[in-house]
Amino acid sequence: MRTASWVKDTIDVCLSRRLESNACAESSAERFCDLNLKQTVETTDTKAGLAFDLTMQALILVSLVDFSIETLPGLSSDARKLLWLIETATVVAFTVEYLLRLFVADRKIGFATSFFGVIDLLAILPFYLSLGFDLRSVRAFRLLRLFRILKLARYNAAVRRFHRALLIAWEELVLFGIVAVIVLYLAAVGIYHFENEAQPDAFASVFHSLWWAVATLTTVGYGDIYPVTVGGRVFTFVVLIVGLGVVSIPAGLIASALSKAREADELVGR
User: Fold this and answer.
1) What is the pLDDT of residues 15-56, one digit of tens each?
2) Residue 148 sits in a domain of what CATH number?
3) Is 175 among the domain residues?
4) Handedness of CA 38, 41, 42, 47 (dihedral sign)
5) Sign of CA pseudo-dihedral 33, 39, 42, 47
């Protein structure tokens, strides 16, 4: 009896250990699959990840071409049907991509509210809205499809580096933006003072003069309105000199930040 009991206990232990081993193996396999899927969706370190990225980039371009062709006049019903089928196929692919990225994200809400998460949602939202509503009278919803072009930024290292550069220089850019607005207002007030009497229609108020200030400070100079008085021309010369700084300073700030971002990438690569 003792021998039979010992044999039974031994068999039970072996079966228990085998079940635990199988459970561990299944758990390890699930973790490996999740990790493999995460690498495929979020990185290009593997062949599958690179193929996924290239496929999504190609679909984005196809979608944008499809959107542009839809605007051509005189398209036949067969052509429009084909374009709708292409649009449907790309939206299905983008939907699967969005759900996959949401599934593998460590923080689901964080991804859904992130810049690229919102862009991914806006890229597919107009299609599903059009299934339940007639959006032909609300053309702005159709324009949301153009957000798909921003999806390309996810797959471009240079764009990501530019985003980091903006984060590096954002304080200086904000400060410069405030200064630029002040200079813009002062330019509008100045030209109004010099030109209002000579050209009451073109420079009827400070608000009317803002258009001239924007065109001059950005060195565009459309020439639709221009000063005719001596004081106005001298003031315009000063504004043009200041406008060179308005254009060049932000470019310098961003160029410096891009250099820092590139150096950071090189350090990480090492």
Assistant:
1) 555 545 444 444 544 454 556 777 777 777 778 877 888 888
2) 1.20.120.350
3) yes
4) positive
5) negative
Q: For 122-166, what is each residue's pLDDT tens digit? A: 878 878 777 765 544 444 555 555 666 666 666 666 677 777 888
Please indicate, yes or no, if residue 47 is contained in any of the structural domains: no
Tell me which residue range forms the domain holding 130.
Answer: 57-155
Q: Which of 235, 129, 237 is nearest to 186 (CA)?
A: 235
User: Is pLDDT above 70 for 230?
Assistant: yes
Per-residue tokens: 77:
């019903």
Instruction: Provide the number of structural domains found in the chain.
Output: 3
Distance of CA 127 to the CA centre of its chain: 19
Are residues 205 and 192 in contact, defined by beta-carbon separation less than 8 angstroms? yes
Q: Which of 180, 169, 191 is nearest to 238 (CA)?
A: 191
For the chain, give the secondary structure using H, E and C. Answer: CHHHHHHHHHHHHHHHHHHHHHHHHHHHHHHHHHHHHHHHHHCCCCHHHHHHHHHHHHHHHHHHHHHHHHCCCCCCHHHHHHHHHHHHHHHHHHHHHHHHHHHHCCCHHHHHCCHHHHHHHHHHHHHHHHHHCCHHHCHHHHHHHHHHHHHHHHHCHHHHHHHHHHHHHHHHHHHHHHHHHHHHHHHHHHHHHHHCCCCCCCCCCHHHHHHHHHHHHCCCCCCCCCCCCHHHHHHHHHHHHHHHHHHHHHHHHHHHHHHHHHHHHHHHHC
